[in-house]
C-alpha cells in the first residue's frame, strides 16, 4: 500500500500488553491529574451553550426523546383514527382529515420514529458497548440530529395546518402526484431531508463499529449489538437510496410536470411502487434487527450465561439483511405481475423466515440453558417474542400470493404489520429503555409502574389488533374513514378502539415513569443487572469522558471473564487515560482484529452544525412552496457552512506525528487513505450514492421493459457529439484528480496544484456538455426525454460538488492544510471521483448508446 | 496454525489480507443468492414483457440455479475447512487469539452458505413449478 510512502510513523511499542504490564499500578497522583485533564477536555458546555454539545451521550438523548415525542404524536393520531372507526357512520373527523391522519400516522411512525430511534439508541449506546469515548464523527451525529428535528417538525407540523400529505404512507401515484396542495411535497422533501440524515447516521455507525472497538476486540468477540449495527447500517445504504432516487423523480414530476409516473406520456406508476418497496421492505428489517439486537444484549444477562450460538445469530443477522432485499414485490402481489415473478418473491419471503427463526431459537436456547431472573426488561422481551411470533405467522400466510390476493388491503394486513412492528420493534425498544436506563440516566425506573405499563400495553395491544384479523377477513378495507352498519364489523371495531385506549394508558404510565423526577432515589449500583458487557463499566455518578481508559478486551463478556479489568480501567491503567493537550481524542483500531492503529482528534461543541442543518433544511423546505430563490440561497449557505466546518476541524496537520497512549504504546496521530476513518466514511457514503444512481438507471431500463415504445418512434435523442465530449471531460477531471494526489505525494506540489486547478474546469466542461446534449429535448413531453434529463442533472450536480471538493484541496494545498505528508483530503476527494466518474461514464453510455441498442 | 507469535512485517500484511478476504467471504454465499435472484427476476420480467420464449428462459435460469448452488457449495466447503470443529476442536470460537477469529469467520461463512443454498433452492422452485407468464 502506498499510504506509508509519506513517512508517517507506524505504531511503536509492545502490543498486546503483557500480564506484567497490566499488573503494574498507576501512581495515584498521576491518575488524578489525568482524570482532571480528561474531564476538562470532554466537559459538555453549560448554560445556553448546552445545545452546542456534540457528545454522543447528549445528542443520543435528544435524538431518543425527539423520536419519542414524534411517536407519541403519531400515537395520538392513531387514537383519533380509532375513535372515528369505533362506531359505524361516525362523523368525528372528515374524510379528508382522516386521510391526513392515517398517512401521517404511518409516515411518522416509520420515518420519524422507527428508523431514527435505531440511530438514536445506537448513537447513545454504541460507544459504551465498545468501551469508546465517542463516535468517530461527533459533529456529524449532531448535524444529523438537527436535520431530523427540523425535518420532523416540518413534516408532522403540517397536520396542524390541515396541509398534511394524504395519499397514504407509500404515496402511490397518480393519487399522490395529482393531489392538489402541498401535502405530497411536504412528504417528499421533508422525508428526503430526513433520509439524508439517516444515511449520515448509518455512515457514522458503520465506521464506529468497524474502527472504534477497544484493542483486542476481534470480530468474533464483539457485542452482538455491533454486528447488528453493521448489518443494519449496510442495509440503510442499499435501501434508502432507491427511495431518494424515487423522491427525486417524483418531485420533478410534481414541480416541473416531468411525466415519470404518468402513463399518458409514457411514464409508469409501477416504477414508484418498485422504488418505494425496494426501500420499504428492507426498512421493516432495518427497524426489526436493531431492536432484536437489544434482546441479544438482555437475554444473556438475565439468563446469566453467554449467548447460545453467537455465530448463529451473526448468520441470522447477515442472512436476514440479504434476504430482506428479495421481498419487496410481496407488497405488490395484486399489481398483475407475471406469476413466476410473484413466485420468486413468495419463495424469498418464506426463506427469510429461517434466519429470523434461528435467532429467536438461539434466544430461547440461551434462556433454557441459563438461570433466568424475570426482570422487567425480560418481561418486555417475552412480550416481544410472543407478539412478534404471531406477526411472523401471519407473515408466512401473507407471503403466499393466493392468500394475499384475498387479504390485500384489508384490516388483516393492518393487524399483521402491527404485530410485527410492536413485537419486533416497540416491545424490544421499551425493554431496552428499562434495561439501559441505569446506563444513560444513572437511575432506575419503577418496577411496579413497569409491570403496570407492560400488562396494559400487552393486553391492550392484543385487544386492539387480534380482532382486526377477523375484521379484515370479513372484508373491511384499510383506509376507509367510515363504514355502514350491519356488515359484522361494528363490534370488532369497538373492541379495537377500546384496546387502543388501553395501550395509550400503558404508554402514559411508561412515559411518566421515564420522565418523572428521580432526585430522591439513592445512588444506583454500577452494574444493576450483573451484566457482562462493557457499557456497565460506566461511572456512577456520571462522568463525561465515556470511559476513564480504554481497556484491552479479550472476551465476549469482559465483566464476567476478565476480573480486575474494571479496577484497572478506573485507575487509568489502560489506553488513552490522559488528554495532555486538553483535546478530545479517540482510539482507532483495525477493522478485523482491533489492533490499535491511530489516535484521532474529534471535534467539540459548535454552532456550525445548527447553521448547516438549518440551511440544509431551508434548501429542502422552501421548494415545497415553490420558493426557489431562497431555497438556492439556503443551499449555497449550507455548502459554505459545511466547508467552514470541514476546513477548521477535520484532517488538520497534527502538532506531533506520534504520541504515547499508555502501556508504552505510541500511535500515529494522522492517517490518510484507507487507514483513516474519513476515507471509510467517504467509501460508505458513495456506496449509498451509487445505489441511488443505479436506481435511476434501473428506472431507464424499467421503462424500456414496461412499455412497447421506449424510446418512442421518432424521438429526439441526446446529441452524441456532445456526449462524447462530456465523456472526455469526465475522464480528464478524474485523471487530473488522481494525478494531483500522486504528484502531491512525490513532492511535486506545483504540478499537483495545476492539476487541481484544471480538474474543476474539466468537470464543469463535462457537465456542461452533458446538459448541452439533452438541451433540445423537451422533458415534459414524454418520459424518454425526462429520464435523460434526470440522469444528466444527477451527474451535473455531482460534478458541481466534486468541483468544490477539488477547489477545497487546491485551497488546502495553498494554505498549508494539505501537504505531501498530510494529504487525507485529496485521498477522499479522489475516492469520490472514482465513483462519480463511473456514474458519469455509465450515463454517457446510456444516453449515447442505448437509443441505438434498444 | 501454531501458537501465537509476533509476526514479521510482510507476514503481517499477508495474514491481514487473507482475513480481510475472509470477512468478505462471509458475504459470498448471500451475494451469489442475490445475483441469482436479481437475474431470475430481471430476465423473467423482460421475457414476459417482450414476449420472448419463456421456456428457453426458464431452462437457462434452471441451469444458472445449478451453477449458483455449485458456487455456494464451494464457498461452504472452503468455509467448513476453515472452521471444522472436529479438526480444530473449537465449535464456539469465543477465544481471543487470531486463530479463534479465523475459525469464527469460517463458521459464519459456512452457516451463511447453508442459508443461501436454501434461498436459491426456494427461489428456483417457481422456475420449475410455474409454467408461463400468465
UniProtKB/TrEMBL annotation, chain A:
Annotated Cytochrome oxidase subunit I profile domain residues: 36-554
Primary location class: membrane
Record field: transmembrane: 62-87, 107-130, 142-161, 186-210, 222-244, 284-303, 310-330, 342-367, 379-401, 421-440, 452-474, 494-515, 604-622, 628-647, 680-704, 716-739, 751-775, 787-810, 831-850
Gene3D superfamilies for this protein: Cytochrome c oxidase, subunit III, four-helix bundle (1.20.120.80), Cytochrome c oxidase-like, subunit I domain (1.20.210.10)
Subcellular location: Cell membrane
Known catalytic reactions: 4 Fe(II)-[cytochrome c] + O2 + 8 H(+)(in) = 4 Fe(III)-[cytochrome c] + 2 H2O + 4 H(+)(out)
Keywords associated with the record: Cell membrane, Copper, Electron transport, Heme, Iron, Membrane, Metal-binding, Respiratory chain, Translocase, Transmembrane, Transmembrane helix, Transport
Sequence segments annotated as region (Disordered): 1-20
Annotated membrane topology: Multi-pass membrane protein
EC number annotated for this UniProt entry: 7.1.1.9
Biochemical pathway: Energy metabolism; oxidative phosphorylation
InterPro entries registered for this protein in UniProt: Cyt_c_oxase-like_su1_dom, Cyt_c_oxase-like_su1_sf, Cyt_C_Oxase_1, Cyt_c_Oxase_su1_BS, Cyt_c_oxidase_su1_bac, Cyt_c_oxidase_su3-like_sf, Cyt_c_oxidase_su3_a-hlx
GO BP: any one term: oxidative phosphorylation
Single GO cellular component term: plasma membrane
Keyword Iron: yes
Recorded GO MF terms: cytochrome-c oxidase activity; heme binding; metal ion binding
PANTHER family found in the cross-reference section: CYTOCHROME BO(3) UBIQUINOL OXIDASE SUBUNIT 1, CYTOCHROME C OXIDASE SUBUNIT 1
Family: Belongs to the heme-copper respiratory oxidase family.
Protein name: cytochrome-c oxidase
Annotated source species: Roseovarius pacificus
From TrEMBL, chain B:
Keywords, in A-Z order: Membrane, Transmembrane, Transmembrane helix
Membrane-spanning ranges: 31-49, 61-80, 104-130
Protein name: Transmembrane protein
